[in-house]
């Protein structure tokens, strides 16, 4: 299952973190809702420069009853990530509905439900993830920019403590992710966006 607290336990300490080559300092405000419990966290970390632009990045994803949204601000000087960024809206429905899995008992989603997308989630997503020892289909809502990031195979991305095993497919219309199925990858590509491991 999704581990909302894993990265919070890992990254909320006060210790200094040195970014390595091609990484930038970040500050992220992460808003999560898991099993109808809302959480907000401030995460200070390092990420690959690929995720950083001149403006703040905002990412959001939903699956089943779980929602995560993150506002990420990047900088490249010592201790520059001491500020704050705004928390994102995960309550306001935006009119898009997507297929999602009610539970994960097998690799393919067998109990498909409809979920209402919120905030900046403007795409439906269909992908495959590995969560510990279990591989399964991931269906839900996502922001277009996060779908783009997840489609970059050279970028290692992970969030919710889940690893996408291949580039997901994203589409723009309601329930457009419910028609087909995606086969599980034989050789998983572990993607790892440290700042979004939170939820």
From TrEMBL:
Keywords: Secreted. Signal peptide: none annotated. PANTHER family: LY6/PLAUR DOMAIN-CONTAINING PROTEIN 8, LYMPHOCYTE ANTIGEN 6 FAMILY MEMBER M2-RELATED. Residues 35-82, 94-179 form the UPAR/Ly6 domain. It comes from Larimichthys crocea. This is UPAR/Ly6 domain-containing protein. The keyword Calcium does not apply. It is found in: Secreted. GO terms for cellular component: extracellular region. The keyword Transcription regulation does not apply. Transmembrane segments: none annotated. InterPro entries: CNF-like_PLA2_Inhibitor, LY6_UPA_recep-like, Snake_toxin-like_sf. Gene3D superfamilies: CD59.
């Amino acid at each position: 299952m999704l581990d909302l607290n894993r990265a919070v336990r890992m990254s909320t300490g006060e210790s200094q973190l040195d970014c390595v080559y091609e990484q930038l300092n970040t500050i992220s405000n992460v808003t999560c809702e898991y099993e109808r419990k809302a959480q907000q966290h401030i995460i200070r970390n390092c990420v690959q420069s690929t995720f950083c632009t001149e403006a703040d990045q905002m990412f959001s994803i939903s699956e089943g009853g779980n929602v995560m949204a993150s506002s990420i601000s990047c900088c490249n000087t010592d201790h520059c990530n001491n500020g704050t960024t705004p928390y994102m809206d995960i309550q306001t429905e935006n009119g898009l509905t997507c297929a999602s899995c009610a539970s994960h008992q097998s690799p393919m989603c067998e109990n498909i439900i409809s979920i209402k997308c919120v905030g900046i989630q403007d795409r439906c997503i269909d992908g495959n993830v590995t969560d510990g020892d279990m591989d399964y289909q991931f269906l839900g809502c996502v922001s277009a920019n996060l779908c783009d990031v997840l489609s970059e195979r050279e970028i290692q991305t992970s969030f919710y403590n889940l690893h996408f095993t291949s580039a997901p497919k994203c589409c723009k219309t309601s329930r457009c992710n419910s028609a087909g199925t995606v086969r599980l990858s034989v050789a998983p590509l572990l993607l790892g966006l440290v700042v979004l491991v939170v939820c």
